[in-house]
Write a structure and sequence with these properties.
With 103 residues, the protein is mainly α. The model has no long low-confidence stretch (mean pLDDT 92).
Length: 103
């Protein structure tokens, strides 16, 4: 395959849309990663709450909610990365005409 064909294929409307969608998924995954760190930091801060009666329960509840939130955010991050990488893989297969039958 020569460079002219590759250049033409990679600039087709549909392929540009695939690239845009993949970039959006990756950007969303990056934002989710930041939020996961924030949630984990909040869960870590619950260790610093005073250790007495009601505060133990509050710290446990906050920590549990933050852990569940981190799990959900991580799952969403993984799904976004899978979608983006699938789009990129199809783009590469189409543009370079490599194993296109797989898609």
């Amino acid at each position: 395959m020569n460079n002219v064909i590759i250049l033409k294929r990679q600039n087709e409307e549909l392929m540009l849309r695939f690239q845009f969608a993949a970039r959006k998924y990756y950007n969303t995954a990056e934002t989710l990663d930041i939020w996961i760190w924030v949630v984990c930091f909040i869960a870590w801060l619950t260790i610093l709450l005073p250790s007495s009666g009601i505060w133990d329960t509050v710290a446990l509840c906050i920590s549990t909610v933050m852990d569940i939130a981190a799990f959900i955010l991580f799952w969403q991050l993984s799904e976004n990365i899978k979608r983006a990488s699938s789009l990129r893989a199809y783009f590469d297969a189409y543009v370079l005409n490599i194993d296109l039958e797989r898609y």
